[in-house]
UniProtKB/TrEMBL annotation:
Domain named OLD protein-like TOPRIM: residues: 436-506
PANTHER family with a match to the protein in the record: ATP/GTP PHOSPHATASE, ATP_GTP PHOSPHATASE
Family annotation (Gene3D superfamilies): P-loop containing nucleotide triphosphate hydrolases
InterPro entries: AAA_GajA/Old/RecF-like (IPR041685), Bact_Antivir_Def_Nuclease (IPR051396), P-loop_NTPase (IPR027417), TOPRIM_OLD (IPR034139)
Domain of life assignment: Bacteria
The protein's name in its UniProt record: AAA family ATPase
Domain Endonuclease GajA/Old nuclease/RecF-like AAA positions: 1-388
Amino acid sequence: MYIREVFVRNFRKFNDEGVTFNFRKGINIILGENNGGKSSIIDALRLALLSGQYRKGIYINISDFHINEFGERASEIRIDVYFEELTEEQAVAFYKLTDGANTSKAELHVIYQTYKDNKGNEKVKDYIYGGSRNEPIDKETFDNINLVFMAALRDVENDLKPSRNSQLASLLYTFAPNNEDRERITSTFIEANERVKGDEAISAVEKTINSNLSLIEKEELNQQISINLISPTFESIAGNLDLCYEFPRRYIKILRNELKKLREHFDISDLSHVVSDVDEDYIKVDVKKLKEDGKLVKLYNELISKIQGNNLAVRQNGLGYNNLLSMATTLGDLQKKPSDEEISIFLVEEPESHLHPQLLELLFNFFRQSDKSNKIQIFMTSHSPTLVSKADIDSLNIMYNQDGKVNCSSLSQLQLLDEDKEDLKRYLDVTKSQLFFAKRIVFVEGISEAILLSEFANLMGKPFDKYSVEVVNIDGVDFEPFAKLFADNGDHKNLKHLCAIISDDDRCTNQDDKYVIKNDELTFSKADINAIRDKLKKGQISSRAQKLNGFSGDNVLVKLAMKTLEYELALPKENTETLLKVLDKIHPKNSAKIKGLIEKGEEQEKIAIMIWLAVRDCKGAFAQRLASEINKITICEQGDKKFKVPNYIQSAINFLIQ
């Protein structure tokens, strides 16, 4: 049994149209910008799934009702949760959430309405129904939902501190569910209490207190106290359990004579690979090597039993490790709890808090393992590109605001082929994963475009940082998997962000094109510029570019350079001076040859071809130095110079920033 779909209307940012979220089994990751509604969907799940519990930890108030663009507050909030794949046992436990016929599916509907009491105060009442028949639900139904929530701003130290409601106490109740288990644990502590009471010092303290009480109370009360290690009840034991980290001991220091006796006792002939000298009296033993040697297990156990462990209190540990400890404890609770009729849900906000990327990857793999083996459905919000880069494509849900309305696109709902998902997964490293957190995205094929694009936007007075534009360099020309995320194929489930794709049309490269330009024609020193010019005018754009053009739509714009970026940069005459200034520093001879042709009055198309050919072996370095020169023009350090952004790039930037 799992949550397949959630519909939320008029709750906080979610307006009267409502928003539908599609989820899957296992891990679901909700992404989006700050204040985009991610926490609201987590809270909507909490409100619905904890509706029948007395200690919910979350409640609706008037401020949770959506306020529209006219400043009018909604009078009704609706949350609908749809479940699928109920087992026979779950169908019985959640029968009132089914329609009575198809018991493999279930529905939970929660409605909050505002009203005014007799004094005119605005209050909130709720209605909780199940199934398509709107059956009233009894509180016992909710006892079969195991839900754990971890907020983004969590007080881990306090959550782990000994108390009746601590995570550790909850875990103990889960692993000791019946009286037999609890009596066994309690008897162990009773025995420990008796041993403590037998100590001479403890006995003296107890006797002193009772003697003083007798003097104070005389015959009136005649009370007696008893000193215990802990109150011998299961509730008290659970509430006093404490967590600490074992300090990792690398070596054990031991007297030479004592180690000699242990060697003789366990009949060990050689320890040279695990010991080294400290001084005349002591030897140190390498604990790790000792543990790894299967023949020395008895010696290892004997030495470990003799040493006093040094432990760290939770408060002495870093926030990152404490977050891991808290999640390990919480998931341990959920892993043990589920019975045949139950469903387990783990809601966690920003699991990346205080974790460096490597630890986050380990944590995410742990979530994956928990999902596979323990039937826990996990919902997490995140701002972490690192986490996204490790996730399955189908687990991602992208929230965004469009025209004042919150939307959510689930990538599992997009019409992506398995090979598309594999391509995306391969491409989505940490930097490319940032596309899911931006409002506007521009995809480029190489480092040259990635370096120059932001400078072009600044030159146009439309800086990318001001308009939340993310430049994604895919390091190639396989734009198709990315384009499919944004292009609408008719089902309207695409990502609605504005997306521009900037690429080269790579004309004259199709093998069946009679105007194909072969690679050996592009050597600067030997190139036939007239022949190349004629082919560029008559040749076809590449098959890849033709296909890419097909992805243009309402929120996707594909713009192609004629042949290549460098050729387009050199076509405007006003750009020549700046381009040659950069080329002077990289290929001075090539630059000098082009300047000579300009002095002779060579036409601009040929000059553009020569500049393109001159930088083919140094595109990255050329783009880097050109970006610096354009920046100087933008900030008016070179006020007399002009630079024209190529038309196709201008169109893409204007499309994104209208």
